[in-house]
Amino acid sequence: MEHPVVIDEAAKAAIMSPAGLTVDDERSYEVLISELDMQTGLCHVALSAAAPEERIPAKITDPEVWLPNNPYVSAMASKTTIDVRAKATRREGEIERLFISNYAARRRGEPDFGLV
Question: Considering the entire predicted model, what is its pTM?
């Protein structure tokens, strides 16, 4: 195969779900993390610090989530928002889940010297 197709978790969720689920392009979000499982990356986030009760499920696919004292855990512990890059799956225009790939302080493709 000359040009293999890579299917990320957001696209997989859309393919495997009943009709009506779409996947947005990756973009920036400011989120407030209220729960986080460091083993799986599963979490719940609010898209507005003003309305923390309006939480949506999310999954952090950034490997840094498994490290102690990572930026996601620090943001959750301090109850502060964190800027992230994510793809959203939507049903009927509403965000169903976010797939978070990295946080704004570290851009994709840049080395993370904390992991070296």
Answer: 0.74
Residue carrying the six token digits 């490997």: 63
In a 10 Å sphere around its CB, with 0-12 CB exposed, 13-18 middle and 19+ buried, how is residue 88 labelled?
buried
Q: Which of 6, 12, 14 is nearest to 95 (CA)?
A: 14
pLDDT in tens, 47-94: 976 777 889 999 999 999 999 999 999 999 999 999 999 999 998 888
Residue 71 sits at φ, ψ, to 5 deg, of -60, -30
| Separation between Cα atoms, residue 104 and residue 107, nearest integer Å | 6
